[in-house]
Amino acid sequence: MHTPVVIAAFAVLLIVIALLQPLARRLDLAPSVLLAAVGALLGAMAAWLLYTPQTDALNALAQVFVDPPIDSETILYVFLPLLLFQTTLTLEMRRIFEDIGPILVLAVVAVLVATAFIGFALYPLAGVSLVACLLLGAIVATTDPVAVVSIFRDIGAPARLGRLVEGESLLNDAAAIVLFVILFGMLTGAQAPEASAALLTFLRSFIGGLAFGLLAGRLAVGVLPMMRDHKLAQVTFSVALPYLVYVLSEQVIGVSAVVAVVSSGIMFNLYGPARVTPDAWSYLHDVWEQIAFWASSLIFIIASILIPEMLDGFRLLDALLLVVLILAAFVGRAVVIFGLLPLLGVMRLGERVNTKYKTVILWGGMRGAVTLTLALSVTEHRNIPEDVQHFVAVQATGFVLFTLLVYGTTLKPLIKLLKLNNLSPLDEALRNQFQALVLSDVRDSVDQMASAYAISPDVTQKVRAGYDARTAEVAAANAIAEDIMDKERVQLGLIALADRERVLVLHHFRENTVSNRTISAHLAIVGEIADTARTRGRAGYNRAARRIVAFDAGFRFAQWVFRRLRTDALLGRAVADRFERLLLTRIVLNELILFNVKRIRPMVGDRVSMILHETLEGRKDDVLQQLDALRLQYPDYADALELEFLRRTGERMEETAYAEAFAQRLIASELYNDLKRELAVKMGETRQRPHIDLGLKKQDLIASNPLFATLPDSQRERISRLLQPVFVLPGEHVIRKGEKGDAAYFISSGAAEVRTAFGVHRMGRGDVVGEMALLTGQPRSADVVALGYCTLLVLSAADFRNLIRTSPELKAHVEHLAQTRLGLNAAEAAAFAEKAAHEALEAAHEGAGGTPPAVAPSPQA
């Protein structure tokens, strides 16, 4: 074929795709339905033009449509990676994980069940092998989310319903194609026919693809910061990623390419937003949306053009088999949706899916381009018998047409019939409340604009009257919903706060005021805060929010590495990350408190707003407590971090001022570029986070400890070989009561609390804890808990005794501390005993019905 003719045919397809979009909206049809119809019409018309002598001038163009210069393998390689990757980018992955149980059942279990139902239902009638019937089942098990989700968005279906369908389709394609490849190999002799071998191949391909995709996606995310300020480079890199993963996984590693692309896209979606600026991520999304639109439309219309050819030779028996196929697919899907999904709720493996949702999911199982392409790949293989090729091509094509023409045209009326397009009473009330506020603000703005532009009061009044009427209508509707529970309003307010917190964190990321590591960790926690607020309300919100001040597994691992390997690099970075995260949270919480007052309170009322305010203040108190503990331990680093934050904020404000001046044409492009270059150099100098010194060097700790400060250098050197520094977190137990005494702890920095049965003592820098058990040989008699970040010097029992023996000054000091503590303990014990006796005497008199006499203090006390 001539290249210009192919390009002309390609341009014709793009024009058809563009014109069909507004036509589909006007006809109230899903675009996929119209694409399939027009594609089949193009295929039939091209065949007529090619074989009619009167139109020989168009033969070259018609030949392109009758015999496209592209086969099924090329279609899959060119379009499928793009479609899969783009779908993962559009999904709210953390919300998807909430419904991962139902999605896995719909995607994986449903594919296996549908394949089995279809295969065994057709086998007695089709006249082909069971493997061929199962192969057809795997082909038609792939669902098409594009048509269904477009209907959902047009009609306003619930968000969870859309997530279930999109999540199902994403993993459904992966499972179905893996199964297709195995059955295809069995049919052509490339795969062993044993069921055990097939199952092992399925698991290896699926799990291997999952692992490789996650690894590739994580590596790709790590590369993104290198292109931070280059949006075009980021998009280019993201387009190359799914193709590279697809080819490597299939051709080199030998695992499922579809699963690998999906899992790499999931990883890219989860961690990508924290590696690029929000503007760049939004731009990347927009470009991918355009790419996916071209890919999905082209693959659909190209596959549809081949429908007339694939239906060639359609017989009465084929019609009967098609009816059996439709019924078997419907029953198999219904068994999973209405039989297996409810079991997840019973076993608490997932949130319950209500009957209305299940009905729509059952009826929304439309098939599309992937099904047609897989069927086309069967017809192109020379080792597959012609009767099997005809069977697969006709049945798959007929099934796709049925789902598009029946399901596609009736799904929207079904959703309306089930009233799934209606807002809940709470959402309706909040909608009216918000609309009333907006209409009131717009009305006031119209008045101000009319006054500023000297517009006639009569004209202004006409416009104002319209807003007054709408405001009164909304207020009347909202008055009906006043009985909505405050608990529900609080939950929606918390969700709004969590969503706003994400926006504020991304704003600081855009302004480059905090590091990428902090943003990434904080976004993950904010996502969990929003999710748990949706599912568990205020209790879930508070529980997730505590993760910000909690010490995570990474921090404790860094602490473990320091204790075992005596290297503080990881620990220093963990402390710096925590410092920065707490600082960012403090700033964001202050902004959220103002947001609650200005924006949320008018929507939910004063009472609910006060509950939200108390929740935010509680979070703020926790953050300030942890931040103050860090500041006491590392005041210099706290100042350096805040200084760097202010510097970065100032530089970003300077950059914005230059850009606004250039946009308003106050400065010329030459001046603007010169200012930008100068600022870029300055910003490059302050991009690095300050270095934190944990002060964990033994020599410095020993020299600064009052117990050892007066000792000669030679003795301090000997002591340094015995002591080991330990970094302790706030609230961590240094010593537990009842344990065997195996070490003494010298407090170098920070403070600890000794908790005995009779009282509490606070110990600080220069004090020793744990020495009593070593001196007496008795078990530990108290708990010792760190009050803040503490640096301790640990001395084993044997080394402690040797050190006391060889250092009279140290021995005298430790014995003095021990005697003092024994005296305090004795006094506390006597006071405790007297108090207990007094309480017992009071209880005895009260039991006898008398009045307890006054008890004079014991002289022994």
From TrEMBL:
<keyword id="KW-1003">Cell membrane</keyword>
<keyword id="KW-0472">Membrane</keyword>
<feature type="transmembrane region" description="Helical">
    <location>
        <begin position="129"/>
        <end position="149"/>
    </location>
</feature>
<dbReference type="InterPro" id="IPR018422">
    <property type="entry name" value="Cation/H_exchanger_CPA1"/>
</dbReference>
<feature type="transmembrane region" description="Helical">
    <location>
        <begin position="360"/>
        <end position="379"/>
    </location>
</feature>
<dbReference type="InterPro" id="IPR014710">
    <property type="entry name" value="RmlC-like_jellyroll"/>
</dbReference>
<keyword id="KW-1133">Transmembrane helix</keyword>
<dbReference type="Pfam" id="PF00999">
    <property type="entry name" value="Na_H_Exchanger"/>
</dbReference>
<keyword id="KW-0739">Sodium transport</keyword>
<feature type="transmembrane region" description="Helical">
    <location>
        <begin position="291"/>
        <end position="307"/>
    </location>
</feature>
<feature type="transmembrane region" description="Helical">
    <location>
        <begin position="103"/>
        <end position="123"/>
    </location>
</feature>
<feature type="region of interest" description="Disordered">
    <location>
        <begin position="841"/>
        <end position="861"/>
    </location>
</feature>
<dbReference type="InterPro" id="IPR000595">
    <property type="entry name" value="cNMP-bd_dom"/>
</dbReference>
<feature type="transmembrane region" description="Helical">
    <location>
        <begin position="6"/>
        <end position="24"/>
    </location>
</feature>
<feature type="transmembrane region" description="Helical">
    <location>
        <begin position="202"/>
        <end position="224"/>
    </location>
</feature>
<feature type="domain" description="Cyclic nucleotide-binding">
    <location>
        <begin position="707"/>
        <end position="811"/>
    </location>
</feature>
<dbReference type="InterPro" id="IPR006153">
    <property type="entry name" value="Cation/H_exchanger_TM"/>
</dbReference>
<protein>
    <submittedName>
        <fullName>Cyclic nucleotide-binding domain-containing protein</fullName>
    </submittedName>
</protein>
<feature type="transmembrane region" description="Helical">
    <location>
        <begin position="33"/>
        <end position="51"/>
    </location>
</feature>
<dbReference type="InterPro" id="IPR018490">
    <property type="entry name" value="cNMP-bd_dom_sf"/>
</dbReference>
<feature type="transmembrane region" description="Helical">
    <location>
        <begin position="170"/>
        <end position="190"/>
    </location>
</feature>
<keyword id="KW-0406">Ion transport</keyword>
<keyword id="KW-0813">Transport</keyword>
<feature type="transmembrane region" description="Helical">
    <location>
        <begin position="74"/>
        <end position="91"/>
    </location>
</feature>
<keyword id="KW-0812">Transmembrane</keyword>
<feature type="transmembrane region" description="Helical">
    <location>
        <begin position="391"/>
        <end position="410"/>
    </location>
</feature>
<keyword id="KW-0915">Sodium</keyword>
<dbReference type="InterPro" id="IPR018488">
    <property type="entry name" value="cNMP-bd_CS"/>
</dbReference>
<dbReference type="Pfam" id="PF00027">
    <property type="entry name" value="cNMP_binding"/>
</dbReference>
<feature type="transmembrane region" description="Helical">
    <location>
        <begin position="244"/>
        <end position="271"/>
    </location>
</feature>
<feature type="transmembrane region" description="Helical">
    <location>
        <begin position="319"/>
        <end position="340"/>
    </location>
</feature>
